[in-house]
Amino acid sequence: xxxxxxxxxxxxxxxxxxxxxxxxxxxxxxxxxxxxxxxxxxxxxxxxxxxxxxxxxxxxxxxxxxxxxxxxxxxxxxxxxxxxxxxxxxxxxxxxxxxxxxxxxxxxxxxxxxxxxxxxxxxxxxxxxxxxxxxxxxxxxxxxxxxxxxxxxxxxxxxxxxxxxxxxxxxxxxxxxxxxxxxxxxxxxxxxxxxxxxxxxxxxxxxxxxxxxxxxxxxxxxxxxxxxxxxxxxxxxxxxxxxxxxxxxxxxxxxxxxxxxxxxxxxxxxxxxxxxxxxxxxxxxxxxxxxxxxxxxxxxxxxxxxxxxxxxxxxxxxxxxxxxxxxxxxxxxx
Length: 334
Ligand SMILES: [Zn+2]
What we know:
Blueprint (H helix, E strand, L loop, with lengths): L24 H9 L6 H17 L6 E4 L4 H12 L5 E6 L6 H14 L2 E5 L3 H11 L7 H4 L4 H21 L3 E4 L10 H4 E3 L5 H7 L1 H7 L3 H5 L3 H4 L6 E4 L1 H4 L3 H9 L18 H13 L5 H9 L5 H8 L5 H13 L2
Parallel strand pairs: 1-2, 1-4, 2-3, 4-6
Antiparallel strand pairs: 5-6
The protein binds zinc ion.
Zinc ion (ZN) binds next to helix 1.
């Protein structure tokens, strides 16, 4: 398969074209837009302000952190605790398919860092229906599908939503998510924002295809109620990695010191979730490109990982994802 000579986007990626040097249109337009990327310094200052304001109130918790037990969110919690000295409530959404080892990691890490932990495990029949339907065509618009599998989109959305709900209930001013910089579109409004800006009906429309197949109940898990969106002050959602720095080597070497080990029961793209493998396999079957092509390519463009490292993530000759996916598919029957 032909891939861009700079990043790893394949010729099967939607709307891609290549110049005479084999460089893809996404790389070329990234180069052009680069000068418009918002000043990170300004956003860092904004984050400091929000943190200082929270600290001045001596709250029980300054922040709810979405904690998957994966390497990125582990490093995020470590940094917020040790560097920023925040009072943290770690929140884990147990989708029923977390690696057993990721729970060991969470226990070790949070014990070492002395952080409170809430785990929510929604009813499994409903979760299975959501995940099965999310992996079929027509659930999410193509621009979302371009950067992730339908299964991951639903799961990540539920995580963010539950974090917000807890922050609203407990009056916690911040929710922090551990998306890698490759998962973000590099716009200011994605790094620090308030999630009540999007009109309610517009958001409801986004989840309508899923609700039509699974039932109205999905809205509770995927979005807040009208009343919850009206909460004032409304918590900030912060994607902290572009602000605190993202370096995979540093992440691995740091989290090793607080008891984190790499699980061996997940595919190479995930350090915590088995369902991810099914997401990958279904996505490749439907769209003929890897759901991590976009994120890995962005990480290459940002100079965070090498092209070779990205290739290893999207081209797994051992097809480990396939092996895990078959196992998971059996468990997903409902
Ligand atoms: Zn490219």
